[in-house]
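Q: I'm a student working through a structural biology exercise. My instructor gave each of us a protein and asked us to get a predicted structure, then write a short paragraph describing it. Mine is Glycosyl transferase, group 2 family protein. I'm not confident about reading structure output yet, so if you can add a plain explanation after the tokens, that would really help. Here is the sequence I was given:
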Amino acid sequence: MWLVIPCFKVRAHILNVIAKAPSWIEGIVCVDDACPDRSGELIEAEAKDPRVVVVRLPQNQGVGGATLAGYGEAARRGGRVLVKVDGDDQMDLEHAAHLVAPILLGEADYAKGNRFTSISHLKTMPAVRVFGNAVLSFAAKLSTGYWNIFDPTNGYTAIEANVARLVMEKRVSRRFFFETDLLYHLGTLRAVVRDVPMPARYADEVSNIRIGRIVGPFALKHLRNFVQRVLGQYFVRDFNAASLELVFGIFSILFGLGYGLSYLANRDPGQIASAGVVMMAALPIILGAQLLLQAMNFDVLNVPSRPIHPFLRAVERMQAGKAPA
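A: Happy to help. First, here is the predicted structure for Glycosyl transferase, group 2 family protein. I'll explain a few features afterward.
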């Protein structure tokens, strides 16, 4: 098990994070993401833990780019489960074992923290963040297909190394959309994701996120991922009942709206619509809405449930000339 820590403007906290690393962690990769505070130099000069490895990026790549670089380094050094934790000391490393356990037990390919499993866990979280995370969580359910998870922007995660290698081959967002975009790409692999309850922690850390600047881009990226996911999952890789429900549901709603608007545009002034006209407009819309709800129900039940990393490990062993374990 290896710890991956992206480092950008965390000079005041990074040494505390390293000092709290559990004894069962085999290695710690600290990624200096072109940090203006020279976090890498500080770690090399002050950190006494022999498990620490510093990776320097020549240009700032964002939390996603730094995390993927850390995944690559840890995997090359033999890491089997990679735990990502921020360098601002907001994440309690005592919970790292809870993230790793589902992967070691073969129950998940990726585990992430969820601060919304208990009201007591949210006592230290600002109200605006609670609301914002709730909205983002529903948007992420739609765009990623993981209806069983919440708190998608939580950066306290663990991933199996072979699954991480597959993810690194994809075009995952490098900036603040990283955690949610990673979930989308995990969904394309049919990887199993598990939520792990944990409390929120806030102290004197300064967030680099500006809410007003990310709302628009986040909405567009969620819409893009949703469209790509639906087309890929229900019309390219498979065609099933939900595919038919989507097609006929959208067609019915458009027909009803089109018929109603056409009648309103062409009716004589003061003319009252007959019951038949009203039903010709309303019934397709009602039917279409029901079909779309059925498609959503199918999607909810279609969340990946069989981990892929045992298969990947077996293939890896056979390619290395070893018998599968």
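A: Here are two points you could use in your paragraph. The chain has two domains: 2-232, 239-325. The mean pLDDT is 89. It's a good idea to check both against the output above yourself.
Q: Great, thank you!
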